[in-house]
Amino acid sequence: LERATFRGTGPESAPPEDLYVAEDHDADVRFRASGSGRIAVWLTGFSDEVREDYGVQRGARRDIFLQAVEYLLDGQLVERVKCNPKSAWSGEGHAVRLDVPAAGDHRLEIRVTLALPEGADPLSTEPVVLDGDELPFTVAAGLEPWMLPLAAASGSTLLAELGCVATASCSHDDTRGPENVLDGLQSSAWLCKTGTGEQLLRLDFKKPLRAKTLVLQQAGTRPRDRFSYDPIVRVELRFPGTKTSPLQASLPEDAYLPGFIELPADLALRQIEIVVLETIDGGSADGLAGFAEVGFLSSED
């Protein structure tokens, strides 16, 4: 059970990305998978023991006849391919494509039902079912449940189009300034060094903004940056120029997930301050934390 490796030279021999192989010598059923958020899975063969025990002798060969090939994702049956039980298996992959619902660690399994022997009574004969080894794989970025509604509201979350200006009490360097939270790009972010005084991000609006929800997307949401920065787990919102009291809120410990904070009703924002109150140590970037994007959702989004 391993990630496949290839040897060769030239562009034609370059190894495909994210190819996984479950072809252990002792496995009854062998299969492969390739991809990340969308996985292709296919049957590649059977062990010598399976051919010896269940194959039908035809000359020098022992042929295998299949009734169905099933694929399981995280223990749940997700695809079933019916086979022609009268046609010997000749290397068909019976491939399927599976959409993996979320990022993280997952496992694939294959289950093959053999065709009944010729002349067997289907009412009294149980078919032989063979299982392959589990095939673990990791998806760096999948289609999370929160992504679609956030993408649908992206027009209303892009504050630069509303004449918003971002400033901050501190920034890690000139390329990690507060303006990055307004550019609509996950690849840029406002970053600050934690534990060095107050880390405050301030947004000023040319016109009053009425919104229902504040959306905070942390730095490091790109797959390659996911564990680079310390997750921000608690913030305080301040509303200068209003009588509204500061509001403290928690954010997900997994910084990959956006934080949604409900705002006080009937509040017309001309300025909002977002103060980092608490982070979790552990990022590889030596105590850096921040936000990639800040946005707002209205009651209609």
Would you summarize the structure shown here?
The chain is mainly beta.
Secondary-structure map with pairings?
Layout: E1 2-3, E2 19-22, E3 29-35, E4 38-46, H1 48-54, E5 56-58, E6 61-63, E7 66-73, E8 76-82, E9 96-99, E10 104-114, E11 129-131, E12 135-139, H2 147-152, H3 154-157, E13 165-168, E14 190-193, E15 199-210, E16 213-218, E17 232-238, E18 247-250, E19 259-262, E20 268-279, E21 288-297
Antiparallel strand pairs: 1-2, 2-3, 3-4, 4-9, 5-6, 7-8, 7-10, 10-11, 10-12, 13-15, 14-21, 15-20, 16-19, 16-21, 17-18, 17-20
Question: Key features?
Answer:
single chain; 301 residues; mainly beta; Immunoglobulin-like; Jelly Rolls; five-stranded antiparallel sheet; 6% helix; elongated; disordered N terminus
Overview of this structure, please?
With 301 residues, the chain is mainly β. It has 2 domains: 2-139, Sandwich (Immunoglobulin-like); 147-297, Galactose-binding domain-like (Jelly Rolls, Sandwich), CATH 2.60.120.260. The chain has helices at 48-54, 147-152, 154-157; strands spanning 2-3, 19-22, 29-35, 38-46, 56-58, 61-63, 66-73, 76-82, 96-99, 104-114, 129-131, 135-139, 165-168, 190-193, 199-210, 213-218, 232-238, 247-250, 259-262, 268-279, 288-297. The strands form 5 sheets. A 5-stranded antiparallel beta sheet has the order 1-2-3-4-9. A hairpin with a 2-residue loop joins β7 and β8 (76-82). The two termini are 46 Å apart. The model is unreliable at 1-16 (pLDDT under 50).
